[in-house]
Amino acid sequence: MNAIAAIEGSGDHRILVLHGWALDSSVWLTARARTDQSRFTYAYLDFPGYGVNRPEAPADGIDGMAAVALDAADQLGWSTFSVLGHSMGGTTALRVATLAPERVTSVVALTPVSPAGTPLDEATYGSFAGAWADPGAAIRGALAPHIDETDLKNLVDRNRSTMDQATWESYLKNWTSPDFLDRMGTYEGPTTLIVGESDPFVTAEYLGDTLAALKNGNLKTVHGKAGHYPMVENAPETVALSEQSLY
């Protein structure tokens, strides 16, 4: 059984929060300082292999990650809840909604990777795997070109303290290979996809098929220099957009 990393707030609206590939739930720390804790209760999950669950074996695929998320909701005693996820956690949030549509009241997917998978040629896949050697360069070069130097250093430091290379490689396989785009229509609740205006990877065009597959979806943008980590790069606007989109 995986531990919940943190629970904050006392609101009636319950939100399960899922992190992305490069580090654990600490990626949300800047945003957490701005959340409305009277309206919402946030539960921050570390996937197996990350953070408080670092000793656990990585989850098997996006479906395995979604199962971990649903188990966490069960641990909390939450029969219904919203899901907020970032990058691969955003895709996992979408998968949770398709697997348990009767339980999920709304989804916010922040810079999510595609539920149809992200096919990479051998060289590109190798470069993503090899980015473990220098994640800061990879983040700035491919994901967040305008990220503040201090924020980038903090991301890299936390990356090294919350996961290992085997976890990095396992979850790279997970986020590049989901295949449930044809199941997206099974969830009819409100679903908001959010992109960072300067994210060169997850763009509105990249998410076109995902948005088209949703029955009740919309797309929003965090403006300015926000890239793939808008909750770090522009926390005020990201939290505002997210909380406005939770029902």
TrEMBL record:
GO terms for molecular function: hydrolase activity. Residues 15-240 form the AB hydrolase-1 domain. Transmembrane segments: none annotated. The keyword Transmembrane helix does not apply. Keywords: Hydrolase. The keyword Metal-binding does not apply. InterPro entries: AB_hydrolase_1, AB_hydrolase_fold, AB_hydrolase_sf. Pfam families: Abhydrolase_6. PANTHER family: MONOACYLGLYCEROL LIPASE. This is Alpha/beta hydrolase.
